[in-house]
Write a structure and sequence with these properties.
There is one protein chain. The chain has 435 residues and is mainly beta. The chain is 10% helix and 41% strand. The protein has four helices and 23 strands. About 16% of the residues have low confidence. InterPro entries: DUF1005. It comes from Solanum commersonii (Commerson's wild potato).
């Protein structure tokens, strides 16, 4: 089935230029900047500034990006038509550090970029430049802003669980109103003595599966002090295992508390098949922050390497849930939205054609660039059916997509794994020795 169409509006190359007579310190400094689009969360960034006499060295890095699925873009256009106004991207600039003659949060001016919504709807397979170059900053300022705003297609495969991860659900590929089954998931408990999955293990399953009898139960006190041995195996329609997520470090409460702490997180290995063994592909760690949010870190494990590379390190609300996302900015640096939940209409950044530069994550740059994946995560006590989006460029076979599906399942299950130990888990998440 074909991938779903998505559109990205990418903003990059932002820089401020002042006339030579401006009282600007000789060393370049930075200004604060807010990027706004009606109906989407505002994004914040910092941009360099210099006087006109100096050679303009414009950083080609990406500063912001707004993402729309086809249905979201249609709704966006409809709302704009109802208002009877053209949609515009607005970039607000605020005074930077002391020495510029502006207060630290004083509004310097704004730049408005009109959007051609018809062109966005019919973007096709090639992107186009919306605006590029130097423009005057309004509000009486003599400064100019350099910017490069581009629309680009960003097709993604979309997968939906038809039930909670612990209920061994089917997974469908979705495109509009069409659903097609592609995977099945099997939730099980690994034997407590089985440690092979910490590195490599046989593809044969050694545990006993559990069935799903119900959804949510009331919270009760329990004396259970660890949650361990959970695993979920993803199979293709022929029944062959194509990915797995295995809890390899138990989730245990920190000393003197009933929560999993950041200093001692639980962890999962995300595994892929190879040479008749499970090979580690990634590691997900999760814990409970003091403010009640779920903290998490996901690392890619290069084949044959000892050092893992972090792709995302953030938090998400345990009460409301939300979305996690992996989006690689400028081909090397991972980025998540300020509130740590990935929003399709805000907070993500792409490595597009603005001139990526290699960095410390050069290995990740070669394999992961731009939008990688996002997945919904349900809050505590809520029935969760994860929806997973994966960038087309990161899927070349079923195992590629299945690995991200397994990661989404592990992330969703981590909400329960990090639940307060004064609360009892749902029946399908408890082993017999915990009854």
């Amino acid at each position: 089935m074909d991938p779903c169409p998505f559109v990205r509006i990418v903003i990059g190359g932002l820089a401020l230029k002042f006339p030579s007579e401006s009282k600007i310190p000789p060393n370049s400094s930075t200004f604060d900047c807010k990027i706004k689009l009606r109906g989407c969360s505002a994004q914040s960034t910092t941009i360099p500034a210099f006087v006109q006499e100096r050679e303009a060295i414009v950083d080609n890095r990406i500063h912001g990006c707004f993402n729309f699925s086809k249905s979201e873009l249609v709704k966006f256009v409809e709302k704009s038509n109802v208002r009877g106004k053209s949609s515009c991207l607005k970039i607000e600039i605020y005074g930077g550090k002391v020495g510029f003659g502006y207060g630290s949060k004083r509004h310097l001016g704004s730049v408005v970029v009109p959007l051609d919504l018809k062109s966005l709807e019919n973007i096709g397979h090639r992107g186009f430049v919306i605006q590029n170059g130097w423009v005057s900053v309004g509000g009486g300022s003599t400064a100019q802003l350099n910017l490069n705003v581009r629309a680009e297609p960003d097709p993604r495969f979309v997968f939906q669980f038809d039930g909670e991860a612990e209920c061994s659900p089917q997974v469908f590929q979705v495109n509009g109103n069409v659903k097609q089954p592609v995977f099945t998931c099997k939730f099980s408990f690994r034997n407590s003595g089985d440690r092979n999955l910490r590195s490599r293990s046989s593809l044969s399953e050694t545990s006993t599966s559990t069935s799903c009898f119900g959804s949510c139960t009331s919270d009760e006190e329990t004396s259970v002090k660890e949650r361990k041995g959970w695993s979920i195996t993803v199979h293709d329609l022929s029944g062959s295992p194509v990915a797995a997520a295995s809890m390899v470090t138990p989730f245990v409460p920190s000393q003197g508390s009933d929560r999993v702490s950041k200093s001692n997180p639980g962890s999962w290995l995300i595994l892929r098949p190879g040479d008749n063994t499970w090979k580690p592909w990634g590691r997900l760690e999760a814990w409970r922050e003091r403010n009640g949010e779920l903290g998490y870190r996901f690392e890619i494990i290069p084949d044959g390497a000892t050092d893992a590379i972090t792709l995302v390190n953030s938090t998400i609300s345990t009460k409301k849930g939300g979305k996690i996302g992996i989006d690689i900015i400028n081909g090397a640096t991972p980025l998540t939205s300020p509130n740590s939940s990935f929003d399709l209409s805000s907070g993500s950044v792409s490595g597009s054609e603005f001139g990526s530069q290699p960095g410390s994550g050069s290995w990740a740059q070669l394999l992961y660039r731009g939008f990688v994946m996002s997945a919904t995560v349900g809050g505590e006590g809520k029935c969760s059916k994860p929806e997973v989006e994966v960038g087309v460029q990161h899927v070349s076979c079923a195992e590629d997509a299945a690995a991200f599906v397994a990661l989404a399942a592990a992330m969703d299950l981590s909400i329960d794994a990090c639940r307060s130990f004064s609360q009892k888990l749902r029946k399908e998440l408890r082993q017999q020795d915990q009854e």
